[in-house]
């Protein structure tokens, strides 16, 4: 028999979350961001839930080819652009839109001389200071790109550093509008946080990522309460052992947790080799939450490679074989991430290949009966 751990990807939840994006930015077209293998969910698994998007944003050419193989005929955007001159013919072959963020990429286009027309998104650095032309350089870069016979449409693009924090985005929008003033072309500005909270940034295109998968851009579930997002990934397992503790007994490596009363704990078939965060807290006042038979309880002790332990005090009827939800429906992934000193993004992306994953489909007669993917 296989270990009881498994993940479920919920296509109906992904489709719902795309509709949440459209309600918040009704005048914009949507690049659904599926980088990092759709934030760990799997491009093939999420594709049906995102068919209603206007385009897909990703990083790797291989991911773009995979989308074409799945039958997607619409726009695909390479968010970091291309990396070598030999990549340029593939832009034409697979009809890809590419970000252009530096002089070296412009030079590669000039050298490759594709037939075109290529759709590009010219990236402006408005303060994130990762990729993009400085505002003082942007107009010259645009003129250089515009002069290339191989370049067709040019969309103005930037990325926000503080759309989910008190500093906000006003300074970046001002820099963007100043640098692109009187230049023709559409604009693409909004990440997930800007989609939800900054309608002034909803230009021709928006680029949602994490909210498509049901998590909060801030890492705090309370910040998206009432928005209507649904978790797209659930991680489940079972209890494989039960232990009775006496006061003074410790749990796990390093004896980080010490029982202060008689306790009953459960051992769960899940550990950091499955993608559960090793730094999830199982001691002190802020322990990571877990559901056992649908009842919320907490970790005890340190997460190990293949197992973790939970307090069965709130669920006295639990026994070997009882169901466990590590995150997902009924338990926001952001709550687990906060107790682990990270964000939901990382937990999604960290799901290990050894975890069997099924898909709750949109078209199946019984979506509660997941299909192996």
TrEMBL record:
GO molecular function: alanine racemase activity
Keywords attached to this entry: Isomerase, Pyridoxal phosphate
Needed cofactors: pyridoxal 5'-phosphate
Matches recorded under InterPro entries: Ala_racemase (IPR000821), Ala_racemase/Decarboxylase_C (IPR009006), Ala_racemase_C (IPR011079), Ala_racemase_N (IPR001608), Ala_racemase_pyridoxalP-BS (IPR020622), PLP-binding_barrel (IPR029066)
Active-site positions on this chain: 35 (proton acceptor), 253 (proton acceptor)
UniProt binding sites for substrate: 130, 305
EC category name: isomerase
CDD domains associated with the record: PLPDE_III_AR_proteobact (cd06827)
SMART domains reported in the protein's UniProt record: Ala_racemase_C
Domain Alanine racemase C-terminal: start-end pairs: 232-360
Modification N6-(pyridoxal phosphate)lysine occurs at: 35
EC number: 5.1.1.1
Family annotation (Gene3D superfamilies): Alanine racemase (3.20.20.10), Lyase, Ornithine Decarboxylase, Chain A, domain 1 (2.40.37.10)
Pfam family, one: Ala_racemase_N
Entry-linked PROSITE patterns: ALANINE_RACEMASE (PS00395)
Family membership noted in the UniProt record: Belongs to the alanine racemase family.
Job description of the protein: Catalyzes the interconversion of L-alanine and D-alanine. May also act on other amino acids.
Annotated protein name in UniProt: Alanine racemase
Source species: Cupriavidus numazuensis
